[in-house]
Amino acid sequence: MTDHLYIPPLAVIDRMEDETIDTKTFTMHFLDPEYNRQFRYRPGQFVEASVFGVGEAPFGFCSNPNELGTFAVTVRAIGNVTQAMHRMKSGDVLGIRAPLGNQFPLEEVKGFDVLFIAGGIGLPPLKSLIDPMLDSRDAFGTFTILYGARTPADRVYKPLLETWSKRKDITCLQTVDQPDSGWSGYVGVVTTLFEKVKIDPARTVAFTCGPPVMIRFVIQDLLAMGFPEDRIISTLERYMKCGVGKCGHCAIGHKYICVDGPVFSWRQIKKLPER
Predict the structure, then answer these.
(1) 135 with 64: CB under 8 angstroms?
(2) Distance (Å, whole) CA 110 – CA 250
(3) How far apart are CA 156 and CA 190, in angstroms?
(4) What does DSSP assign to residue 270?
C-alpha cells in the first residue's frame, strides 16, 4: 500500500512493448530507490496509474512478483488515460498507487493440478500467477493453459505463448474466433478447448479471467464438469475508480471489488446480488 492515498509515488517507464495493434506492455520502476527496493506485490493485485493532467485508471500486474526491482502492466488503448499512456515513451513518468486489492491463492493450491482459462486481455492478470507457479513447477500437478482471442493478431504475449506451447511440463492450447490465412491452430471459443485436454475436477483448481460473457460460460462448464465452487477462481470486472473502497464505484452489494477483490471464488461470486 502507498504511504499516502492522494500522492502516488512516481515510476519511470523502462520500456514499452507492442502486444497487438492497440495493446502495449509497460515495464516500470519507482524513482525513489529505497521505495523501489522495498516494493512487493502479489499475483492478482493491481495498480492505479496516473497520467498527470489526464486521469487515473486501474491495471492488473502482469509481471512476475518474484522478479524484484521492476513491475509491468499490459494496457489496451480504449479511453483517455490508456490512449495517453500509449503516447508516452521510455523515460516518461507515471504516478503509481500500488499494490491494491487481494490476490490469487498461490501457496494454498500447491499440490493441486492447475487450469488457466483466459480470453483476450484477460491473460495478463493470470500471467502474474502463472509465472511464479512455473518458478516452482514441481509444487503443482498437471499445468494447463487455455487461451482464446478474437483473431491471431489479437493475442497478447505471442512469443511467450509459443514458448509455453513447446514446454513438455505444461499444456498450452490456443484458439481464435476468426482465423486468418496463416492460422493453423484451433478455431472457436475458448470453452471448446476443454474437450482437447484431460481434466480431473477432483484435484484441479481453475483460474479464469477475460470478458464477462466468457467467464460466465467458463464457470458454467466448470460446474458441469464437477468442479467444487471454491476451486473456481475468477476476477470481477468493475471500474475501480479510487482503488481503496472510498468512492463506491465498484460496489456489488456489500462487496467492493477493489478491496474485497478483484479475485473471488465462484462460491463468493454466486452470493452477490449482481452476477
Answers:
(1) yes
(2) 31
(3) 15
(4) T
Cell 505463448 found at: 161
pLDDT band at 5 (very low <50, low <70, confident <90, very high): confident
What is the 3 state secondary structure string of 105-145? CCHHHCCCEEEEEEEHHHHHHHHHHHHHHHHCHHHCCCEEE
Residue 6's pLDDT band (boundaries 50, 70, 90)?
Answer: confident
Q: In what order do the strands lie in the sheet with 46-51?
A: 55-60, 46-51, 93-100, 10-20, 23-30, 71-76
Backbone angles phi, psi at 115, to 5 degrees: -130, 125
Q: What angle do CA 241, 104, 42 make, to 5 degrees?
A: 75
CB atoms under 10 Å from CB of 30, counted, come to 20
Q: What's the helix, strand, coil split of the chain in %, to 5?
A: 30, 30, 40
What is the distance of C-alpha 138 from the center of its chain?
Answer: 23
DSSP state of 61: B
Closest CA to 154 of 206, 109, 202, 211: 211
pTM, two decimals, is 0.96
Q: Pairing state of beta strands 93-100 and 10-20? A: antiparallel
